[in-house]
Amino acid sequence: MAHLADQATDAPARSRGPDRRSRGRGWRSRFNPAYLFVAPAFLLAAVFILWPIVQSGWMSLHDWTIGDDSHKWLGFGNYTELWHDSRFWNALKVTIVYAVFVVIGQVAIGLALAQWLRRTTWYTMLLRSAFFFPTIASLAVTGIVWKFLLDPQVGLVDGWLGKIGVHSQNWLQDTHLALPALIAVGIWKNFGFSMIVLLAGVQGVRQDLIEAATLDGAGAIARFRHVTLPALRPAILFTVVIGTVNALQLFDLTYVMTDGGPLFHTESIVMYLYQRGFVDFRLGYASAIAWVLFLIIIAVSVVQLRMLRFRDDD
Amino acid sequence: MTTDASLSSLPPAPSWAGPMLRGLRRVGRVLAWTVLTIAALATVVPFLWMLGVAFRTPADLYSDPSRLWPDHWSVSGFHAVFTQLPFFRLAVNTVVFAGGTTVLLLLIDSLCAYALARLKFRGQNFVFWTILLTLMVPFQVMLIPLFLTVFHLGWLNTFQGLIVPRSVSALGIFMLRQFFVKIPKELDEAARVDGAGPLRIYWQIILPLARPALASLFVIQFMALWNDFLWPLVISSSTDMRTLPSALTLFSSTSGVDHAALMAGAAISLAPLAIAFLLAQRFFTEGIAATGIK
User: Fold this and answer.
1) Is the Cα torsion angle A115, A119, A120, A124 positive or negative in sign?
2) Dist CA A202 CA A184 (whole Å)
3) What's the CA angle centered on B98, arms A139 and A145, to 5 degrees?
4) Where are the alpha helices (DSSP H) in A46-85?
5) A-to-B residue pairs, Cβ atoms closer than 8 angstroms
6) CB atoms closer than 10 angstroms to residue B125
7) Quick one: pLDDT at residue B180?
8) Which of A190-194, A197-201, B9-13 has the highest mean pLDDT?
9) B73-121 pLDDT tens trace
10) Contact, B155 vs B161, CB < 8 A?
C-alpha cells in the first residue's frame, strides 16, 4: 500500500482543454472515444464494486435477514448489538493476537533471510525458491495438509516429536495450542513474501555507506541499525502493512483447520462474519461486522504508516 | 553434500561474526549455511509429506506416520480421488474460473488503463481517484451484497456468477495505468500521423509493449483466483460447481476421509502453480512483491 500511495502522487494530467484534433469535426467532436475504453470497467465496477460498498453500508443499518422481507430500519442498532456481543470481542481478540504474532514472525524471519541470501548465486536462488514456495500455494489446500500434519494419529509433527520423546498433542483440539498452531502455519505461509520484498530493499543498500561505517569503526550491529535498517524502512513498511491487512482478514486457515474451534478459540472476525451472514443469514448484522473490520484495517494501516514513516531517531 | 556445494558460493560474513578469527569465521559460515539449508528443507517438508501420503496405503500410513516416503508405493490415492469426488469436473471448474476471469479482467482493465494513461476525457480524475479509493476496501465488505446480486440474477452455481463479478480489478487498472504512462508518447503520435485510431494504438502498440506488466498481472491474478476460497465457497454450493480448494476442504471434513485420496487431490491442485512457478519464477516474485496479492 505504501508503494501504491507513493506512486499515486503522479495522478493523471489534469485535462488540458478539449483535444485539438477533435475540435469541430462533426459527431467526433461531441463524442470522445475514450469513454468506450472506460465503459466496460466502469459499468462492471459500478455494479460489482461501488454499489456493493454502498449497499453493505445501507444493509448494516437494517435488520436484513433472509426469509424476512421487512428489512426493518435499525439505525446503528446492529453496531450497538455488536458492541455488546462477547463473541465478536472474542473474534477480535483472536484476530489481533494472530495478526500481531504472524506479522512480527514473518517480518523478522523474512528480514533475517533477506540479509543472509542477499547475494545472488545458484544456491541462494535455490534456497529463496524453497522459502518462497508456500506463498504461491493455496491457503485452503495448505491448511488441509497442515491439518493432517498436526493430526495426532497420522501426522508427521507428532510422529517426529514422538521420536525425541515428546508426547503426542492434539494440537488443533487443545484450547491452548490451537491458536499458536495457526500462527505457526500463518508465519510459514507468509515469511517468503516478506523475504522477497525485503530482499529488494537489502540489495538497494549502498555498499559504500557500509564500508564507510566499517572504517569509522561501527560494528556489525551498529551498521545494521544505522545504515541497513533506515534504508529498508519503505520495504519494511510495505510488508508490515500488507501483512497486517492480510492477517486481519484471517479466514481460510481457521475455516479449514479448526472451524473456529475449539470453543471459539480460533474464531476470527471474518469467520464470525461468515457464520452470521451465510449460516444464520443475518446479512445486516454481518455487513456491520464487515464495516467494523474495514474501519479497523484503515485505522491500523494509518497508525502503522505514521509510526514507521515519521520515527526518525537514527 | 549441500554444505560442500555452498562453500563455493559463500556469502559475506554473517553480521555476528564481526572481528573473529578467520578460521572461526569459516566454521561459523558453514554452520550458518547448514542451518539455512535445513530451514529450507523444513519449509518444503509439508509438500513432500503430502506427496508421500498420496502414494501410501492406510496401513502404511498408520504403521509409521513419521516417514516421509511410503514402503510400498501405491497409486490408489490418485485413483480414489477421481472416484470419491467429481475431480475432473472440479479441475475444469477451477481452470474455467481462474483462467476465464483472468483473461476477461486483463482485457477490461487494460482498456480502462489505456484511456486513463493515454487519452483525455472529462471525469478522468474522478475515475482515477475512485479506483484508488476502492483499492482500500476489503473484499468482505462487498461480499454480502455481491452474494445477493448474484442470487437475484439467478447466477448462484453458475460460471457467470463466479466470473463476472470478479472480472474487473481496481488494482489491475492501477498497475497497468502506471505502466502505460511510462511508454513514450511519441509512439502514439507517430501512429496517429499514420492514421491509426485509439483502438489500433491500444492493440498494436501499447499492449505489445506492455507484455511484461500484462504477464505479471496475469500470473498473480490467476494465482489469486486459482487459490481463492471464500468467493467460490459462497457462490457455488453445488458439488458440480465447486472449485478445487473449496471442494477439497469439504471433502477433508467428511468422516473417515481417505488420506491418500485427499493428499493426491491436494497435490494435483497445487501442481499447475508449482510448475508455473518453477518455469517463470520472476513473474511470481515481482508481481507479488509489487502488489501484495497472494
Assistant:
1) negative
2) 25
3) 25
4) 51-59, 77-83
5) 308
6) 14
7) 94
8) A190-194
9) 889 889 999 998 999 999 999 999 999 999 999 999 999 999 999 999 9
10) yes
Task: State how far Cα A136 lies from the chain centre.
Answer: 15
Q: What is the mean pLDDT of residues B125-141?
A: 91
Cis peptide, bond prior to residue A262, ω within 30 of zero: yes
Question: Which ipTM was obtained for this model?
Answer: 0.87
Q: What is the 3-state secondary structure (H, E, C) of A104-155?
A: HHHHHHHHHHHHHCCCCCHHHHHHHHHHHHHHHCCHHHHHHHHHHHCCCCCC
Q: Is A7 on the interface with B (CB under 8 A)?
A: yes
B147 neighbourhood in chain A, CB within 8 Å? 277-278
CA B57 to the chain's CA centroid: 31
Q: Which amino acid is at B104?
A: L
Superfamily name and number for A80-310: MetI-like (1.10.3720.10)
Separation of alpha carbons B231 and B140, rounded Å: 10
Nearest CA in chain B to A156: B66
Domain ranges across chain B: 2-74, 81-291
Q: Is A31 on the interface with B (CB under 8 A)?
A: no
Spatial distance between the Cα atoms of B202 and B197, rounded to a whole number of angstroms: 9
User: What number of H helices and E strands is found in chain B?
Assistant: 18, 0
Report d(CA A215, CA A84) in Å as an integer.
61
CA distance A55 to A77: 17
CATH 3.40.30.10 applies to domain B81-291: no
Pull the grid cell for residue B58.
492406510
- What are the backbone dihedrals phi and psi of residue A31, each rounded to the nearest 5 degrees, phi first? -115, 120
Q: Please give the residue of chain A at the shortest CA–CA distance from B246.
A: A140
Residue in chain A lying closest to B181 (CA): A12
User: Would you state the cell numbers that stand for residue B52, as one nine-digit string?
Assistant: 508421500
Task: Measure the CA–CA gap between A133 and B98, rounded to whole angstroms.
Answer: 20
Average of pLDDT values for A176-184?
Answer: 95
What are the extents of the domains in chain A? 80-310
CB atoms within 10 A of CB A175: 12
In whole angstroms, give the CA distance from residue A15 to residue A18: 8
